[in-house]
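Bumping with the actual sequence this time:
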Amino acid sequence: MFGCLIALLTTVLMAGGSSPDIAARITDLGDGSIGLSYEVRDGVTGNGRGVRVRLGADSTASFYQGHYADLDDLTEEGPAHLTLRVRNGAVVDLDVVVGGSGKQARRADVDLGTVDPAVAARWLMGLVEMGKAKVADDAILAAAIARDVEIVEPFLSVTRDRECDADVRSSALYWLVIVAGERMLGDVQAVIDDDDEDVEVRENAIFALAQLGEGESLEHLMGIARDHRDPRLRQSALFALAQFEDKDEVVALLEEILTE
């Protein structure tokens, strides 16, 4: 992941430098756990044991992870509470929840309290340079939900860097679409149309488009399902479109394709 490291370091420096206090506390701790909190974007809620992110201001769809009885259990507003598990001065596991008292983070060996969301996000993006995909993937989610943080450039850097893990790149692309919306359609379409790109990343780009589900993004999905030269991507687009069976134009397209 050396190329991924170079791209991310450049992005972090352009964003205003690294977060020396967090990094220094991790190094000083050596082994143990560190907790911190930061404010989150609108539409991000939880229950102190999980995270829910509303996918668009007018959407009833949500991304969610963690422990919960049902989605109504994930309605508390922020902040986010981050717990880092550290071994030999490096982060080996990361857990993010929203809402609640943050008791897990508060019980950490070192509690950094509430930090600026931009500081937290810049430091989290630095974590993506590490080799473990699970830590990087969790770090991307944690950075994406930070309040008032511009993620487009750092997330695009990850998405475009083929030295990065494919799952991590797909995750960055997904959250780029969720946070930045339809202004990213051109970049997403470029990934889908790139024959040299990893097919997993291209298929996940289609899935990301489906999360928007309205306007131009839906038109893009329909165009891929109808006309794309790669049959695997046409199939992925058809699968994504199946969730829009209440839209007449989608039903008409599916019927047209299935009767050919």
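The tokens above came from a reply further down the thread. The radius of gyration is 19 Å.
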